[in-house]
Amino acid sequence: MASKANSINLLEFHTPQMRAFHLTWVAFFVCFFAWFACAPLMPVIKGEFGLSVAQIANINIAAVAITILVRLVVGPLCDRYGPRKTYTGLLALGAIPVLGVAFAQSYESFLLFRLGIGAVGASFVITQYHTSVMFAPKVVGTANAAAAGWGNAGGGAAQAAMPLLLAALLMAGVSETLGWRVALIVPGVAMLVMAVVYWRYTQDCPAGNFSELRAAGVPVESGGKGGWASFKAACRNHRAWLLFVTYGACFGIEIFIHNIAAVYYVDHFGLSLKAAGLAAGSFGVLALFARALGGWLSDRCAGRGDLNSRVTVLFVLMVGEGLGLLLFANADGVAFALAAMLVFGLFTHMACGATYALVPFVAPSALGGVAGIVGAGGNVGAVLAGFLMKGTGDVRQTLFILGGLVVVASLCALGARFSNTATSAAAAARA
Fold first, then answer.
1. DSSP labels for 239-263?
2. How many CB atoms lie within 10 A of CB 269?
3. What are the backbone angles phi and psi of residue 208, rounded to the nearest 5°?
4. Scanning 10, 109, 259, 398, which has the fewest C-beta atoms within 10 Å of its C-beta?
5. Which pTM was predicted?
6. Got the DSSP string for 17-70?
7. In this structure, are residues 106 and 49 in contact, taking their beta carbons and an 8 Å threshold?
8. Rg, the chain, Cα only
9. Kind and range of the H or E element at 401?
């Protein structure tokens, strides 16, 4: 029976492991592009619908709130039906609200579709699940982080590309009111195309698809039929909930920055829409290498030490993230703000990669449940950050408070340390 890959050969496409690696990060990129496509256009949408600060906060909260539930669900669904069917379904169904938001005629309808779009953020869990079942322990951290990082760059790409797409439409003679709507149709169509590609060219694990393997009596990654049993097993594991908090403090911050960065640069530093989009997009571009760097660092330290070396890496990265965020919150000039954002963004993306470098080891028989719980933590963090901004009414003050909370949350990483038995088992698997 085919086994997990022990190496990552980026130019290889004929093996099911590398085919899944490439297609899962591309699908993730498309989903994140669609998820954040509205954010850089908010200055235009704000003017058209006459949105208040509170209404913008509600839209940002809606964009991530539903993802909490969907992430909790899709992890066990991967265990039950396999990542291939789950991803295809999410791409096809998620395209509906993405296309729908382009036709919104009021704040209420826009808010409703924005809520629906949040479901596509659950794509991250499927991506991490698929790479986890395809790659062996000694490279799984790097594989998870690289796929997540490259896919995550879709958020940054949306920040930079959507204003440029709108500008191109305006130059072609399309009105601004119609232009942003036409621009938002593009990611919806891309999701439908990707659904077809994912269904046709991927399989659930190295040995084949879960349904066929179970029919043949072959055990699969989840150790059973998955679903509810996987979720219950994950819920009983305290490390899953500690990583839920750490991921909320790194990925939650990442989502929050994606949603407010463009407006923040326009309102506080007077940048144009295109300049603000490029500045905000630079934060997302870090995901191209920073997440992978966090996963690679975790793999390297675990190779030279033990499983708890991964815990230490995560703790250090989160402290760096919190301190960098405090610098960003106190930046007075646009140049210093951009530099500070890139510094704390580097730590943030690396911490995200280091978190999911730990996930495959928390409860291997309940991988989908753990991946879903931890992934949901990221969105809980983003929702809480949105409520915090709504409560303070000031982005800068919100950023400062979040910086302190991230430093405190880093202690949860230390609480997730593994026993000697678990570290010995991981060392044996790595060997």
1. HHHHHHHHHHHHHHHHHHHHHHHHH
2. 17
3. 140, -155
4. 10
5. 0.78
6. HHHHHHHHHHHHHHHHHHHHSSGGGHHHHHHHHT--HHHHHHHHHHHHHHHHHH
7. yes
8. 20
9. helix 395-415
